[in-house]
Amino acid sequence: MLTLAQQLHLRLFAAAALSISSAPLLASDLYVEAGKLIDVQADTVLSGHCISITGEKISKVAPCGPTPSGASRVDWSAYTVLPGLIDLHTHLADAGQSADIALPLKTSPAATALIGAYNARLTLQAGFTTVRDVGTYRGLTDIALRDAINAGYVPGPRMVVAGAYITIPKGGGELNGVVPNDELPTDMRLGVVTTPEDAAIKTAFLIDQGADFIKTIATGAVLAIGTEPGEPEMSEAQLRAVVETAKAKNVFVTAHAHGAIGIKNAIRAGVRSIEHASLIDNEALAMAKANGTYLVMDIYNGDYIDDIGTREKWPDEYLRKNRETTDVQRAGFTKAVKMGIKLAYGTDSGVYPHGQNAKQFAYMVRYGMTPMQAIQSATIHAAELLGKSAEIGSVAPGRFADLVAVKGDPILDIRVLESIAHVMKDGKVVH
Fold first, then answer.
1. Residues 251 and 347 both lie in one domain
2. Residue 1 placed within a domain
3. If you write DSSP's letter for every residue of 121-189 in order, what string do you get?
4. What's the CA gap between 66 and 78, in Å, rounded?
5. Total domain count for the chain?
6. pLDDT per residue over 106-164, tens digit each?
7. Range of the structural domain that residue 64 is part of
8. Residue 120: which of 82, 81, 151, 159 has the closest Cα?
């Protein structure tokens, strides 16, 4: 008997395949000449280096010489080259944020997958060759999108997906304020839990359906009706049940947590990362440092929400909570940088338009990081959080040939990353 995810795949793959795609430039062996090459491992910038690529993988990085026999030379000598970028907080398989809080319900699973395919292409063209997609209201559509990309049906970044939110009833992971929650479709409530035992069962279910990691909702949310960011939601016991169940299956857990109490509950429960951390206090910062917990702080999109949300008349509750969390989150980010806490790049794309993921780099520099640190947060450190340092996140032998090329030098002007000239994924030029 097919799993729910497999049944959904059969319905959605054909729809996703209709997405407009671009034909990548194919080559079995490539020799990429970089004007400058950002070495995120050595914390330096190299000149006159070339990258040898065999199939999907990087085989050698060395000073340039003659093009090896049988290889095609890719002339990026006018560009700065760096690893494919990684955004750890995206919502590709979702209808997007708007003034209409009912939009996710009005958007069918098939339509959600098609929207996700469009968003995936925009994200890849923006230089983000890997994303961690941290949840969708239409459960399992992110799994279908990931598999469609992997099968070559649609272009997009490699995706690490959650399947659905693990949340309490009427919590920050529910679609509240539209219809009574118990009247929502089943696929919108796959991760709703009330007890630790229920949390463990739902965690195992999502992993069995194909989730790569688990996303928990430890506090209320800014963009959810009837919840407050500072208020804890899932209990420490519920969070620990999720973590222990996932750990037994070699799966990581992250926690959406704005408020300090919820952050501490999640860290004590053993989550690998905290999303948002908007209202983090000094004790929680110290706990993150001591436990090696990553913070993924979306410090760009507060300005977008205030500007566009006000103009488009998003719910007043959203705008109020956004104003209450934006500046304090940025202050917490600055403290975390100074303390040397593990920080990885995540933007909450989908709140703002997909493809603009790189706009957060300038904010990270403004609030305390060097340009190199900001780049490392979206490359080597993001790969570390995913447990994929041997595969992605750096330009080094054995890694996937995921590269981006930009005019100018992002070490001198980080904003050049907002305009990507070329993108390579798996040894294929896709933009």
1. yes
2. no
3. HHHHHTTEEEEEE---SSTTHHHHHHHHHHTTSS---EEEE-SSEEB-TTSTTS--SSS-GGGS-GGGS
4. 18
5. 2
6. 999 999 999 999 999 999 999 999 999 999 999 999 999 999 999 999 999 999 999 99
7. 29-83+394-429
8. 159
